[in-house]
Structure formats: C-alpha cells, structure tokens
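user: can you give me the structure for this one chain? tokens are fine.
assistant: on it. calling the predictor now.
[tool input]
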Amino acid sequence: MSWLLKVLPYLLAVAVCAAWSGLIWHLAGKSSGNAVRLEWQAERTANARAAVDAFTRTLSAQWQMTENLAARDAAHAKEIQRVQGEKALLEHKLRTGGVRVSVPARIAACPAGGPAGATTAGEPAQARAELDPAFAAAVAGIAGDGDEAIFDLNACIDRYNEVRERINALTRAGSASAQTP
C-alpha cells in the first residue's frame, strides 16, 4: 500500500492534466466551429444586405422612371391637344372659306394661230385652280392625322429609348455591385 500512496499524487496529476487537455481540446474545437459558423452568418448577412440594396435601388429607379414617363405623357397629351386645336381651326377656316387653297393647273388649250409659247391675252403666266372648301378641309384633315400619327410614333420611340437606357443603367450597376472580390 505504500507504493500506492507514493504513486497516487502522480496519478492524480496525470488525471488532472488529461482532464485539462481534454477540456482545452473540446473548447478549441467549439471555438473553431463557432468561428466558421460566424463567418458563414456574416457572409449570409452581407449577401442579404446586397440583395436589399439592389432591390431598393431597383424600386427607386422604377418610381423615378414612372414619374418621368408620367410627366412625358402629360406633356405629350398637352402637345397633342394643341396640334388638334390648330388642325380643327384650319379645317374650320377651310370649310367656311376663310382660307382658300389653290393648286397649279394646266390649261387645255387649242392650238391657236399665234407664235409658239405666247400666252393669250388676259391669261396669267401660270393658271391655278381653287379647291372646293370641303375637299380642302378633308385633305388638311388627312395630312393632320398623318402628322399626329408621326408625333405619337416619335413619342413612343422616345419612351422606349428612355426605358431601355434606365434598364441598361440598372443592369450595369447591378452586375458591378453583385460581383464579389
């Protein structure tokens, strides 16, 4: 028994050192796992923040584009009303005879016994024919409708180009910020 008493403090010291080493090893393993877990959560948080920022940027650009297009549409509608008013006034003046329209006309002349190229007395150098007021108003209406359609088409093209530029700008900005180093 005396040898057991002599070895017991050494056995206790070895047991305490083993327990201490096991505790250190266990805590080191947990802290290593926690570090990896924290790094993973930080990466997820950064990705979520980038997604929220991109969504906010997109939503802001959408509202701004909506406001710009609404302002453009209002200006276009006002311009169309102005053009339609001018067209209606011109058609009214043409129908009532306030404005007369004439076109160049050829005169069917019988060959006369005079020198070639000479005009007969009392005839102007170039003859003109006046259009019927209703016909002149109809021609002006057709031309006005064509002008209005061209104006609408140009406004549509302008809207398309503005939307395309905004989307391209968002796409370029989104792809630059979405890349990670």
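assistant: here you go. The mean pLDDT is 81. Residues 54 and 149 are 39 Å apart (CA to CA).
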